[in-house]
Design a protein that fits this description.
This protein is about 30% helix and about 20% strand. It has helices spanning about 40, 70, 135-140, 145-150, 165-170, 180-220, 245-250, 290-295, 345-355, 355-360, 375-380, 385-425; strands at about 5-10, 15, 35, 40-45, 55-60, 65, 85-90, 90-95, 105-110, 115-120, 125, 175, 240-245, 250-255, 265-270, 280, 285-290, 300, 305-310, 320-325, 330, 335, 380-385. By secondary structure, the chain is of the alpha+beta class.
Length: about 425
Amino acid sequence: MSSKTKTTGTNGEPRPALVPKLRFPEFRGAEAWKPITLKEASTPVTERVGEKKLTPVSISAGIGFVPQAEKFGRDISGKQYELYTLVNDGDFVFNKGNSLKFPQGCVYILQGWGRVAAPNVFICFRLKAGYLSAFYQQCFEQNQHGRQLKRHITSGARSNGLLNISKETFFGIEIPTPPVTEQQKIVDCLSSVDELIAAQARKVDALKTHKKGLMQQLFPREGETQPLLRFSEFQNVGEWVSDSLGNIFETTSGGTPSRTERAYWNGDVPWVTTSLVNFTVITSAEEFITSEGLKNSSAKRFPQGTVLMAMYGQGKTRGQVALLGIEAATNQACAAILPRKDIDPYFVFLNLAGRYEEIREMSNSGGQENLSQGLIRDIRFAFPPDDEEQRKVTACLSSLDARITAENQKLDALKIHKQGLMQQLFPSVGGVSGEA
């Protein structure tokens, strides 16, 4: 049929032909794409693992397959392992768990694993001949499945965190599909963009690794008073000053005004929580308190140049640091290391940021690992007495940070370019799309 032909929907009403906005020259004027259900395009994968020894896996949105032992800290398959589904490279797996990136669940193809064991609550399938896996993976990346499943979900996730989506509903999803030659052309195009994105991501990672190694040489190692790498003009000027953080700086923490007192909130004093303590310079806040709230609570206003350290928080928050680029108050989960006139605040920030893993190791053990004021005050800290050397160190690392930021922006631009390209290479299911 031509690109203008109408097809009939499930309700008997004609629906617009599926034609992408941008089409390669050899396919312009060709027939419209056909809505193909996953039931037509694939075969369910149902073979059980049984006694085979395979890696139990889970799926994380935005990442894909991960070993259960890595995601959960242990293998959680237990007695259910034998009932897990045996998945081979090239098979697709649908995880019905909702996430911010894929609220209706995510679909990933297994590649480079050989064979794995997938929980039997996941829906697994294999494409038939004529349907390219790489093409369908791009469709799932666009969340074409989620936009259709959305109307079938009438309640939230069940107690096990999975959405109530039946196999029948899932396999009823329609994916607009062109002939295999056009599928391949689109795959080749997007694969070249993916290669550019991967290369740029490797470049960013290499710069970050370089910075980490450089910091280990520009700051003294534990128990030492001179760095391994020193600028030429400072090589013979003596040792750095070394002492505990508490003996060098004044340290304290903030507090939270009562949430029930409206007069304490929505004022003009920026109020910072650990959600903003993320290895950055803080120049704005998400919440504000009033002078009245500051006066009637343990909250304190800290000057620009204060280094904040998260004492506790979920995930990897504990031990992260930030530098106040503004005056602000903080909550009690933030330790404040107040600035000294003879020590560059950015030098302090970079020093502690580079020791993140070391600082986390100092955390109290127990139900929740935390940092305390006492532990933070005991951290050893060394600095060159010559503030010009401090500035040299920070200028060196700042220039590298600027390079990393610029390369990250290029990476983001490539990802945005790919998203825009995909919107044009795939037809809009909601209406008629023209040809380029």
